[in-house]
Amino acid sequence: MSILLAVSGWDPAPWRRRLTSLLPSHKMATLDELFDRPSVRYALSWRHPPGALADLPNLQAIFSLGAGVDHLFADPALPDRPIVRVVDPDLTERMSEWVVMHALAHLRQLRRYERQQRERIWADDDDQPKAAEVQVGVLGLGVLGTDAALKLGALGFKVAGWSASEKSLPGVACFHGSGGLKRLLSMTDMLVVLLPLTDATRGLIDASLLSQLRRGGRLGGPILINAGRGGLQVEADILAALDSGRLKGASLDVFEREPLPTASRLWTHPAVYVSPHNAAVSTPEAVAAFVARQIEAHERGEPLTNLVDRRRGY
User: Fold this and answer.
1) Where in the chain is the domain with CATH 3.40.50.720?
2) DSSP-assigned letter for residue 39
3) What is the b/e burial string over 256-280, where b = at least 16 CB atoms within 10 angstroms of the residue's CB?
4) Candidates 3.40.50.720, 3.40.470.10, 3.90.79.10, 3.40.50.300; correct CATH number of 2-86+282-299?
5) Which residues are known catalytic residues?
6) How far is residue 200's CA from residue 121's CA, in Å, rounded to a whole number?
7) What is the pTM of this model?
8) Which of 103, 191, 198, 276 qualifies as a FRET site for 231, CA 20 to 30 Å off?
9) What is the 8-class DSSP label of residue 132?
10) Tens digit of pLDDT for each residue in 143-177?
11) How many CA atoms lie within 13 A of 124 on its CB side?
12) Are the C-beta atoms of residues 67 and 282 closer than 8 Å to each other?
């Protein structure tokens, strides 16, 4: 039996080496070579070309190599097989590091002090808010959102979270449903977005949502931090909110179009941090080990875990 590495935009060689060392009894194949399609039992995907996983008659499972699975559903010919999403401590920790870094950057006014350093301005009389005076709202309480919420709470931030279904976390005020979303937004100074991209969440971060964030908090205005998916946000609305002062600042790791077009004003806006969709990088060392454990368990007759609900899209 064999494993198909169906990736675009990544070098498959490190993944192949890592998986070969972990699963020596399995043959590896990539999309740029001839391979025996009936022998493929598992497909590992990151933005595979549409139709690339069709005509694999013995395919047993599809693994998403990234934290999200929306790239899979972009394929209209995606086979009706179980989909496994990556849940790995390495990826989770990387995401929380990025979220915490940007929460602190906005809390401690890092962009302002960078400017003052360039201009050689010594201003030591500024009023510095502390974490306990700032209310963070986390949209999405899956594995990534839960970990980020707990780590932000450990730093002293007041933390609330929202999810589509009811959740409970220690030290985190949890809301759900449409009514819960409105309540969370109205109390939020800093909005962290770690939602999956589905039909229900596409374009959620728009002018209407941003207008519901709390005004007059200790940060001087609300902050947006999005490391979920670019399709969640309407960038024209984010820029308009920043220009009007309705939004004080933003940290964005994901975008409507990637790579972010060079003409986008997000690159140069003084209140925006841009990173190239690398808040939580899927490394072969960590993620391939997760996949190998799943395959080995499946072949022992154990059920696959972290399965995607196709109806919900995550």
Assistant:
1) 2-86+282-299, 89-274
2) G
3) beeebeeebebeebebbbeeebebb
4) 3.40.50.720
5) 229, 277
6) 47
7) 0.95
8) 103
9) G
10) 999 999 999 999 999 999 999 999 999 999 999 99
11) 1
12) yes
